[in-house]
Fold this sequence. Notes:
The chain is built from 20 helices and seven strands. The chain is α+β, with helices and mostly antiparallel strands. It has two domains: 2-372, no CATH class; 388-497, no CATH class. The chain has a five-stranded antiparallel beta sheet, with helices on one face. Strands 1-2 form a two-stranded antiparallel sheet. It is globular. 37% of the residues are buried. It is found in: Endomembrane system. It is a multi-pass membrane protein.
Amino acid sequence: MHYLLLYLKKVFTVDCRALALMRIGIGFVLLVDLAIRTTDLEAHYSNIGVLPLHVLFQYVWDPYLISIHAISGLWQVQAILFLIAAFFAVCLILGYHTRLVTIVSWFLLLSLQNRNTLIGQGGDDLLRMLLFWAIFLPWGRFYSLDARRIINLPKSFIHFSAASVGLVVQIMLVYICTALLKNSPEWHTTGTALYNALSLDQVLFPVGKLIYPYPVLLKYLTIGTYYTELYLPFLLLIPVFNPFFRLIVIGVLAGFHLGISLTLFVGLFYLINWVSLLGLLPPVAIDWLETKLLPYFQNLGYRFKGYTSKIPLLFEVRAVWHVSPARREEVSAIKEGFVIAVLLYVIWWNFSNVPQVNHPLPPAARWPGMLLRVDQHWGMFAPEVFKDDGWYILEGITTENNHIDLNRNGLPVTEKKPESVVALFKNDRWRKYSENYLFVNNSFMRPYFCNYRLRIWNEAHRSADQIKELQIIYMMERTLPNYQPIQPQKQVLCICGTQ
């Protein structure tokens, strides 16, 4: 047991300064996410949008989900909740009452995600899990307003606990499980997965277009991606020269996500992964950052305490508990036990999804995951890449029988493929929504989106020719091997009107 504990400390110890950098990064990600979502307050979170509350509860809701965002269908109420979340995100960046702020930010995030799961993606799961593990980590000990309350900052920067194990294991699970879920030959045998991914115009960026014509390169990149995801995370478990191997993992994965961000439209997924890697930085890297890149801010935790000591705070939250040392140890043991239990549950949840195990989580065991929102699925382009691609035409028929495309700002309808399909999406939330919109089991979504787009167009063009009928058309292109030409197939998904 002693040697096991020594091993665990060698591979799962984290630097509190690295955690502080991750905290600041996550705070900024929360603000960016809120800013993007704010542009669709009415569309995605109100009763006059694409997912009214009664539809959410009838078709999407899980009985164990919690969401204060579901208390009202008014966009004004959502705006207030968004402002509250933004305030706590700023407090998280500043490290002000960090643990309390982390708990509130985590709760507000899962509440927001639960309000509309039809626009969620893998990055949302990772962001939510990073905040969950951080509740039990001392990521407010440095580079924070909380540091000014500490009379003597700890001499040791390193931290080991069940939560530090959870953080490292969580990052490993993202890559290992997505590789295990990619059990199609196109990933590890034929090497055609990246060709198929770059054939999807809905997510294709210009850099992706540059490498798309080179099948041999795409094959090597595909197989390299698969084995990188599958084996690279295990370097984190090597006890000797662990800081060196951590830096290798961080460098490779940072470059990996940079490549994804330049070639494919994946929203904030790459940014969230970058931020997660900050928490893995070993002490040698943080020491270098403090002494080389930031010479004027060496030992930032101490300096920040001094610089902010005279800054008046708007309010203070003080709570004093007189707890005996024995009681404190008992509470700490309960906390560690809870974190260990959640970690084992998360590992069970993840590996129950992979085909190599083929033992799905029993329905009776799913409720803790849904309640705490530690549920997760890393099926990015797994088990194989979608072959159905295409673009939307929102064909509006006006009262004067003109046919215009709402998706192209009212230009005449044409079935010609746009030069950039990805440019038709306002943001990645709408791209994900449009992807879910296609599935037959999500057909309930279609009339609400149709009526929403018709209504907002007519409201914005009251003095112009009004739309009396709207058709949601999908021009489907089935990806064929070896760059074979594709003939789009026209599919009318929904028709709605003003009468």
